[in-house]
């Protein structure tokens, strides 16, 4: 299996740095939508292209469900971000990101949990 590209690694590093900046400024305890909007703003300010709430179809046999999959953020069209405001990462959160990667055709995802005292404890990197 081939790992993430240098470009994907660079983007994911900027995402983590940006998420830390947002977490330091706001702290835990807010809604996911607030963290999402602030993180998108921070990433855009750092010169990255950010797509919020991008939808993808889900295909099953001859059925196509348009807009069925909604990803929180896609950065530079290569890194999928799922943002949570829960207290800890659960297996279902990781499964969600892996499914988003598979259905969106991306390889690298970050699950970021903002409701933690130290953000590095709430970041999980997932590779498909």
What about the largest sheet? 5 strands, mixed
Sheet-strand content, in percent, reads 25-35%
Question: Mean pLDDT, rounded to whole units?
Answer: 93
Number of domains: 1
Quaternary class? single chain
Structural class label:
alpha+beta
Per DSSP E runs of 2 or more residues, the count of β-strands stands at 5
Order of helices and strands: HHEEEHEE
Percent of residues in helical segments?
25-40%
Distance between the termini: 9 Å
Main-sheet strand order equals 1-2-3-4-5
**Total helix count?**
3
Word description of this protein:
38% of the residues lie in helices and 32% in strands. It has helices spanning 6-26, 32-45, 91-104; strands at residues 50-60, 63-75, 79-84, 108-113, 123-127. A hairpin with a 2-residue loop joins strand 1 (50-60) and strand 2. The protein is globular, with a radius of gyration of 14 Å. The termini are close together. The mean pLDDT is 93.
Features:
128 residues, alpha+beta, 3 helices, 38% helix
Describe what is shown at a glance:
The chain contains three helices and five strands.
What's the arrangement of secondary structure elements?
Layout lengths: L5 H21 L5 H14 L4 E11 L2 E13 L3 E6 L6 H14 L3 E6 L9 E5 L1
Parallel strand pairs: 3-4
Antiparallel strand pairs: 1-2, 2-3, 4-5
Helix pairs in contact: 1-2
